[in-house]
């Protein structure tokens, strides 16, 4: 059984322009890809076609479209920006910064 087709809601010209800009200039590649998915859906492309276009899978394309229809532009922001988890707490970080910014102790000249 083939999953039903999912399409993005009708976009205003301003939304289309904003998505086009995001798809080219966003800092994170995942946000650019999500904007491209929404734009492609607005032209009537199916999820399998979009998946082939952006190099993703159909289920991801459908999730992005559903999320945009429900949440709008906020859904384009990546939840996980990757990288290693932080190894220090905010309190430890503040303490490290305080020590680093403290003036160096002065030394007496020996005779």
SSE arrangement:
Blueprint (H helix, E strand, L loop, with lengths): L12 H13 L3 H14 L4 H8 L3 H14 L18 H12 L10
Helix pairs in contact: 1-2, 2-3, 2-4, 3-4
Describe this structure in words.
With 111 residues, the protein is mainly α. The protein has a domain of 64 residues. Helix content is 55%, strand content 0%. It is built from 5 helices and no strands. Helix 1 runs antiparallel to helix 2, helix 2 packs antiparallel against helix 3 and helix 2 packs across helix 4. The longest helix is centred in the first third of the chain and has 14 residues. The N and C termini lie far apart (91 Å).
Structural class: mainly alpha
How many helices does DSSP assign? 5
Please state roughly what percent of the residues sit in beta strands, choosing from under 5%, 5-15%, 15-25%, 25-35%, 35-45% or over 45%: under 5%
Q: Considering DSSP H and I runs of 4 or more, what fraction of the residues is helical?
A: 40-55%
Q: Nearest-angstrom radius of gyration?
A: 23 Å
- Mind describing the biggest β-sheet? none
How far apart are the first and last residues' alpha carbons, in Å? Answer: 91 Å
Number of strands: 0
Secondary-structure element pattern, one letter each: HHHHH
Taking all residues together, what is the mean pLDDT? 88
Give the low-confidence spans. none
Task: Give the overall shape.
Answer: elongated
Gist of the model:
The chain contains five helices and no strands. It is mostly helical and 111 residues long. The protein has a domain of 64 residues.
